[in-house]
Design a protein that fits this description.
This protein has helices spanning 9-17, 55-65, 84-91, 103-111; strands spanning 23-27, 42-45, 68-74, 97-101, 116-121, 131-135. It is of the alpha/beta class and 139 residues long. It has one domain (9-135): RbsD-like domain (RbsD-like fold). It has a 6-stranded mixed β-sheet with strand order 2-5-1-6-3-4. The longest helix is centred in the middle third of the chain and has 11 residues, at 55-65.
Amino acid sequence: MLKTKLLHPDIIRALAAAGHGAQILITDGHYPASTKTKPGVEKIYLNISPGLVSVTDLLQVIADTIEIEAATVMAPAEGPEPEIFAEFKKILPETAEFNRLGRFEFYDCAVDNPDLCLVLVSADTRTYANILITVGVCK
């Protein structure tokens, strides 16, 4: 039995294969992962039932497993910043860049991204709970 918090064999394998600069997309339950991600990229569907598993649960386990250099979120065009962004910032290292893209720019980034190596689909029901993380260098 592994001692790490991450036990999912496919996620462990994908993270082990990801190098510096590789990107991982963690989506909410609303994200159109079948059409708005790079063709052929590995997708792991963890959307068991609404709210189970959440994006922040996945991000925490990933952050405990790899170094994260940067994060990009899908941001609304106007209005207040989604509350989930504060949750993301609590989990991410203080040194990680935190970037925002509009909805359609975010989709384009996920579709046309040569560095995207893994998509984790959650069942998070919060809106704008999508985050694209960049793998950093182990220290």
